[in-house]
């Protein structure tokens, strides 16, 4: 059973930065991604990274967020800069699998002054 544990969320002022981490219990060689869900909204893809480190970003975060991976540590990161109030959400780590994929428990990010 794959386990994903997110950390790094918190309260930050607009314009600030946070780095989220997702530690996996096994290999992260497959596609990994960060999703987020704001209150009353559907869960949406924020960023994804392939095994070859190809990346994809939602238009709303391009130029501000960076996804990366450290295969030796089985950890995926999401560096978030220039945060805005609309980035407030629970952020979830996702690991792709041919059998359906795995989700972490989520970490809260709140952007507020």
Helix content: under 10%
Percentage of residues in DSSP E strands:
over 45%
Q: What is the average of the pLDDT values?
A: 95
Number of helices: 0
Radius of gyration: 13 Å
- Main sheet characteristics: 7 strands, mixed
Give the termini distance in whole angstroms: 40 Å
Bulk shape: globular
Class computed from helices, strands and strand pairing: mainly beta
Order of helices and strands: EEEEEEEEEEE
Task: Detail the poorly predicted runs.
Answer: none
How many strands? 11
Explained architecture:
This protein is an all-beta fold and 113 residues long. Helices cover 0% and strands 49% of the residues. It has no helices and eleven strands. It has strands at 4-7, 10-12, 18-24, 32-37, 44-49, 55-57, 65-70, 75-80, 89-95, 102-103, 107-111. The strands form two sheets. Strands 2, 4, 5, 6, 9, 10 and 11 form a seven-stranded mixed beta sheet that branches. Strands 1-3-8-7 form a four-stranded antiparallel beta sheet, with no helix packed on it.
List the helices and strands and how they pair.
Layout lengths: L3 E4 L2 E3 L5 E7 L7 E6 L6 E6 L5 E3 L7 E6 L4 E6 L8 E7 L6 E2 L3 E5 L2
Parallel strand pairs: 2-11
Antiparallel strand pairs: 1-3, 3-8, 4-5, 4-9, 5-6, 7-8, 9-10, 9-11
